[in-house]
Amino acid sequence: MISGAIDKNKIRVGVLRGGPSSEYEISLLSGHNVLKNIPERYEPIDILISKDGVWYLGGVPKSPDKILQNVDVVLNALHGKFGEDGKVQNILEKFNISYTGSRPLPSAVSMNKIISKRLFSESDIKTPYYTVFHPKHNVRGKVRELFKSFPQPSIIKPFSGGSSVGITYASNFDTFENGIENALRHGGVAVIEEYIPGKEITVTVLESGDDASLYSLFPVEIVKPASKNYLDYETKCDLNSGMKCPSTLSKDEKIEAQDMAIRAHRSLGLRHYSNADFIVHPTRGIFLIEVNSLPGITENSILPKSLEVSGISLSDFIDHILKLSLKKN
Description:
Layout: E1 11-18, H1 24-37, E2 42-49, E3 55-57, E4 60-61, H2 64-68, E5 73-76, H3 87-94, E6 98-99, H4 104-111, H5 113-122, E7 130-133, H6 140-149, E8 154-158, E9 168-170, H7 173-187, E10 190-194, E11 199-207, E12 214-216, E13 220-222, H8 233-237, E14 243-244, H9 251-268, E15 273-281, E16 285-292, H10 302-309, H11 314-326
Parallel strand pairs: 1-2, 1-5, 5-6
Antiparallel strand pairs: 2-3, 3-4, 7-10, 8-9, 8-10, 11-12, 11-13, 11-15, 13-14, 15-16
């Protein structure tokens, strides 16, 4: 929150949080953690976007242009729809405001699982076998035909989105059919992937401040509850006791995952930072699941844990990405 008068001698940082997405609560926590850890050289300005898309400054609703007049740079702590799909990025660019994270088109592409998979394939990055189900196909006969022809069990997800919202693990026809209906409700198009058991890891990629080189941090292994077949929304919201870093990967697996994360970041045209999620199968190797262009920065998120193990404080990370955004690269 803003406390007292704004110090005109400091760089004014608007921290965007909230937003009209299913990841509203996570974004609130990410923004809160940023506000707590922002370095002294900056003047933090808390900008809340409500679930219905109204912008607030100091608890007062205002238009984006009025609010953005009060900032020098924006730290984007939004997640999911609007904040991570290029929409808010377009607004910020319209008003010539520097901001953290990726630009509009790469943001939108990284949210689209279908386009992302095509780009990963072009970069020789292995992802799970998949198919796409459109609403026009949503008839019981087509669903049954697909269930019989596609490797089971499977993972069904909306074509766009994050934090495992709208995802279903399907092990029989009923869960398969319900999973497609659920994914279509969340995203309009469903992506059906083969289910790959194995270790779940995340690798953070950071951009250098000098020459835009990319660096990957140590992989974080996520230990999901024994009752879960995949990391669902609730589990991802509270990973504090379920992360291992260093991971139990072999040296070669770590190197391969870090290299894949950098290539995935580059293939999507992202900037500043990202998280890449992988499954490490015991015999089939490493599969890229998705890349998050604005990963969570809550106290229990993977990114702060990865930074900590790498000897980077959250304050230093915030300072770093703000400097990158002010360069307007």
